[in-house]
Design brief:
Its main location: mitochondrion. InterPro entries: ATP8_metazoa. Keywords: CF(0), Hydrogen ion transport, Ion transport, Membrane, Mitochondrion, Transmembrane, Transmembrane helix, Transport. One of its GO terms (molecular function) is proton transmembrane transporter activity. It is rod-shaped and about 90 Å long. By secondary structure, it is mainly α. Helix content is about 65%, strand content about 0%.
């Protein structure tokens, strides 16, 4: 029925927007960033030689 076509388009639009938002949020929150260079920098001991 052509009268129901806009309702179907709206449903599909909302459905794909929800899938898109869920996909992006899962990718954003499931990403674990391992910064090994910062871990190594923080573990170094700093030798400060005072010149006075």
């Amino acid at each position: 029925m052509p009268q129901m076509a806009p309702m179907n388009w709206l449903f599909l639009f909302i459905f794909f927007i929800l899938i898109f938002l869920m996909f992006n949020s899962l990718n954003y929150f499931s990403f674990i960033y391992n910064n090994k260079s910062m871990i190594n920098k923080n573990s170094k001991t700093f030798n400060i030689n005072w010149k006075w």
